[in-house]
Amino acid sequence: MLRATLFTLLIAVSAPLSGPLTAQVSRGDPIPPSQHATLSQAVGWARLSVEYRRPVARGRDLFGSLVPWAEPWTPAADSAALFTTTAPLDIGGQPLAAGSYSIWVVPRETGAWTVVFSNAARVFHAPYPGEASDALRIDVEPDQRPHVESVQFTFPWAEGERTELHLQWGTTALAIPILVR
């Protein structure tokens, strides 16, 4: 009786844990065109991370075509790029509380692009959740760099409590300054 009760308890406790294990992709499954990526960086006493699916250029015209000018776009596929910080930050001189946020970009044909951190953290890649959900907006001048085929986030350097989060697709790149508070 005791053995049967313990077995039942073990099954009841382990059943909720088995879902993610069986949901793994196997060799026979189709490979998604936009691969999942995560990026993590310790900066000062904070842990910063970005989780996203990496859209691929595949010879397409990107900004002003696939990604329209002056419309919010998330630099990810399927779901919005997710930025998480374990400590309060200053991003481009503006405060951002510890937590998770979706990242959106408003590209412009000329001048600075707007980078948005939205409180609507776990959302689909379209539509943009709206300005009422914005945690902060900063303007960043785009830069031209050698081509990268898939959307790429990087922390190219971290020193003390400072870093930059770089975002690049094609030949267009943005450098987002971050300070841990």
Summarize the structure.
12% of the residues lie in helices and 46% in strands.
Overview of this protein structure:
The protein has 181 residues and is mainly beta. The chain has a domain at 32-53 and 64-140. The protein is built from one helix and eleven strands. The chain has one helix spanning 2-22, and strands at 35-43, 46-54, 81-85, 89-91, 94-96, 99-106, 113-118, 134-140, 143-154, 158-159, 162-180. It has a six-stranded antiparallel sheet with strand order 1-2-3-6-7-8, with no helix packed on it. Strands 4, 5, 9, 10 and 11 form a five-stranded antiparallel sheet that branches. The longest helix has 21 residues, at 2-22. It is globular, with a radius of gyration of 20 Å. The model is unreliable at 1-23 (pLDDT under 50).
Structural topology:
Elements: H1 2-22, E1 35-43, E2 46-54, E3 81-85, E4 89-91, E5 94-96, E6 99-106, E7 113-118, E8 134-140, E9 143-154, E10 158-159, E11 162-180
Radius of gyration: 20 Å
N- to C-terminal distance:
58 Å
Structural class: mainly beta
Low-confidence stretches: 1-23
Q: Mean of the pLDDT scores? A: 87
Largest sheet: 6 strands, antiparallel
Spatial order of the strands in the main sheet? 1-2-3-6-7-8
Report the total helices.
1
* Outline type: globular
Q: Indicate the percent of residues in helices.
A: 10-25%
Helix and strand element order: HEEEEEEEEEEE
Keywords for this structure?
mainly beta, 6-stranded antiparallel beta sheet, single chain, 181 residues, 5-stranded antiparallel beta sheet
